[in-house]
Model the fold of this input.
Amino acid sequence: MTEKTEIDEIAAKLAEKELEEVLKNIGKITEIDELAVKIVSIRKKPLLVLYWHDHDECYISSGNEAIVYKELRKNLDTSFNNIDVLIHTHGGNANTSYLVARAIREFAYNVTFLIPEKATSGGTLIALSGNEIMFGHCARLSSIDYQLDINSDNEARTSTYLKHFLSFTKDVMTTLDEDMKEPTGVEKVMIQEMVKELGTEHIANTYRLNGLSKYYARQCLKYAFPRKEQTDQRDDIVDMLTDDTPSHSAIIDYDVAKSLLLPVTKMPLELSDVTKELIAKLSEASELYEVCELMADEKSRYPFVKYYPALASTEEEKIDGQS
Done:
C-alpha cells in the first residue's frame, strides 16, 4: 500500500466519522423538535421553549432578551396570541429576566408557563409574568431575593441571609441579656463582624438590588393580578418570595405556590412526562455543545430558544374579535 493510499483511507475514515457525528446531531435535534411538537399537539397552542443548561456558565445574561424577542418577532406579528412558554433555568440577571418577560408579553395576550423541573431565581421572575403557571411533577420555583454572585452558593450574598442574620443576633442578645441579667452588647459585636467580613458596599448593594427584584416582580404580577384592588395581593406575594423565604434556595413547589395564591395548576401526567423528556434531551445535547453553544467569550453559553407554531389542524388561538 502506497503512502498516498494510506492517507486517502485515513481521510475517508475521518470523513465518515464526521458524517456520523453530523447525522447523530441531526437525530438529536429532531428528537427535541418531535417532543416539542408533541407538547403542541397535547396543548393545542403554540409553544416557545426557553432552556438554559444547568451548568454555571449557562445562565440568564445580558443579550438573552434580544434572542427571545427575535425568535418571537420572526414568527409572530401581533400581540393577540395565546401561547405556552416552557422554561428551564437556574436563574441569572434580574434585569435580563424582566426584559425576557416583557419580550414574551409583547407578543402574547395570554401566557401559560410550563415548568417541567425548575425555573428558579430569575426563572421564577419570568414565570411571574404568566397568566398561569403549570407545574410538572416535583417541579419548583424559588425565592427571588437578589443574589450578587449568581455562580456562588454563598447565601451571605442575599438580602434574605442578612435579614435572618440580624434576626438571629437580636435573639442571641435577648437570650444572653436575660441569662446575664444585664446588657451584653453581643448584638453590636456580631453586626460589626458581619460588616467587617462582607463590607458596607456589599450590604448596601444587596438591599438595593433586592428592591429592584421586588419592583420587577410587582410589574410582572400585574398580568395575573391587573386590578388596582389587587395591589396588596401582589405585594404579599412579592414579600413572601423575597423577605419571608428562609433562604435564596428555598423551594417553591406547587403547594407552596398555591398557598401564595399564585395562578398555578398541575400538569396532567402525560404532559409532565413529555416535558421532562424534552428537558432530558436538551440536557444531553447541551452536554455535547450541540445546543447552548459557547458565546464569543468562550465562557458563557447561549440559551436554547425556539418557537413551535400551532399544528396546521389547530388554528392559533386569538382573542375574540381579533385577526
Summary: The radius of gyration is 24 Å. Residues 149-249 form one domain. Residues 3-43 form the longest helix (41 residues). The chain has two domains: 3-143+254-308, 149-249.
